[in-house]
Amino acid sequence: MSNTTDTATNGKSEEDQEKEKDVKGGLVKADVQHEEIAILPDNTRLLSTNMLPNNRPITASNLHVAHMLTSAGRRPVMQDTFEIANIDSLPGHRPVAVSKLVISDIGMLPGNRPIASNEIDEDPSTLMGYLD
What we know:
- The chain is of the alpha+beta class.
- It contains two helices and nine strands; from the N terminus they run αβββββββββα.
């Protein structure tokens, strides 16, 4: 491993990047201040890196890793601002988010799951466009 430093490696030596990658369990954080940002036609912002296999790019985002889970490998838990209704009704204490979804008065599905209206989008054809 060399100790070269350039802007394509976040201004850090390859050795420092490898150490950081090992500590974070393979997560690579892009440094938007030292990277050249490519903007695609759909406004996706990409940053290049040599830390991922085949030099795959990293998509720039505002996601923040709150902590890491160690079950089934090291997996990141992302920070979010959604409101939680409760954590006791699903197996594994998974959170149930608060929603403004309009629930039908027809009844419930097995497992006490609600039936939602089909009129949930202002433009249903946009959603149907994904179903092909």
